[in-house]
Amino acid sequence: MTRMLLMLIAASALAATSAAQHHHETPAKEPAAALSLGEIDFPSSGSAEARPAFLRGVLLLHSFEYAAAERAFAEARKIDPSFAMAYWGEAMTHNHPIWGEQDRDAARAVLARLGATAAERRQAAPTDREKAYLAAVDILYGDGDRKERNAAYSDAMRDLSLRHPGDLDARAFYALSLIGLTGDVRDTGNYMRAAAIAEEVYEKNRRHPGALHYLIHAYDDPVHAPLGLRAARLYATVAPAASHAQHMPSHIFFALGMWDDAIVSNTASMKTARDQEMGGYHPLYWLEHAYLQVGRNDDAAKLVQIVENDVAKKATGAARIHLAATRATWLVETRGSGPASLSQSMSQPVDTTGITAIVPFAGHDLARGLAALEQKNRDLALQARADLARRIETGRAALATGGEAVSRLQTVSPTDVQSAEVMAQALDAALAFNAGAREEALRLARKAAETEDTLIFEYGPPATVKPAWELTGELLLAMNRKPEAAEAFRRVHQRYPNRRLTLEGLRQAEAP
Q: What range defines the domain where residue 143 resides?
């Protein structure tokens, strides 16, 4: 039976549906506007008028376009206040498992509009399948420790997908729940289990945005990245209306050092985001890094200027975090070269008022210190090191307070503090080398590198801004210890393939 015939049959069936069938799940065929977000078949019991907005919300949810998804689900809920799954969807937009964020209070407020208790909410769902979805979301936002809730939610989604094997979205959300079980810790076993499930969804629907998206996340490290290349090539073409879908392929491209592809991916993502009046800072930051790997320094500097202009107009937390990150990347990758005025502006500290996160600012401290040493200004380098020390203490204090992460801007993880400590060790090494204590500098640099090796792998631009093995290689090269320098540079590529500065150092180290 052809796809066209199937669509005609579905249309005929919909036309024959009476108002009395409002409480029966109806296959939700995506409207034309939703085709640019991918294709799914998510039956629901909402009214015919509300289902298009609901379906758009699910598609956006799969692409982590949470704000837009929230608006779509709210629209469906307003059109049909009895549409139980619209409340489910709106609540789900407050859980960001890959990013370690969850706003339980906001989600509970949404669910409370459907019913005061979990039992009442399940009663509002007319089918067993929808009751299972509501039961799962109530587990996700229930009482107790978030790690335990996440595990129980994952189990609930597993059971739902087993009871309804034809529900590809249940399986996709189950795959995502597995990836999110360990927060920012990459658990290879969980990631590969998620990949196996997402692969099955992909085989049944080659245009499912969740399957493609979650495959990229599952394979997002230098070892498994080749397995994610197929999904990376497809995802942006399947969901071009989602900025995040256009950005995600670059995770695989970064892991493989494919800079030209990463530039194409993030250019499109940034444009889509800014056309939709969003900042687009995440793809902008990755685009800057990719530009610098291929020597397009002027283009990279223009991106930093865009963020600076935005901060001047409205200094949001996201804009300021990315201003620190883009300035740091530019300083490290160019070694503070270019006009003195440009390096001076890149070295200006960024206001952290109202922001708890420390890593982007710690990276900027390190970059400011390294650039100051390049410019033979030891006093400025020491000032940057003092700022970095205060940053670490602030991070430790935030860790001691605990609490669940609602926004990455307001949280600090143990890994964040460890990353900042590695950056402090790297700057100490550079300062020692500058003072003539070369062996001590080498000891500190190697210590930083060995500690960095123990950190959780961070996809994308280096979390520590300057890979410590790269710094170690540069110090060894300056000491004319070429074989050791070459080995240090080779170790960088285990995490960050095809880095320009590493390749340059390796060529020098291997030269006769």
A: 38-218
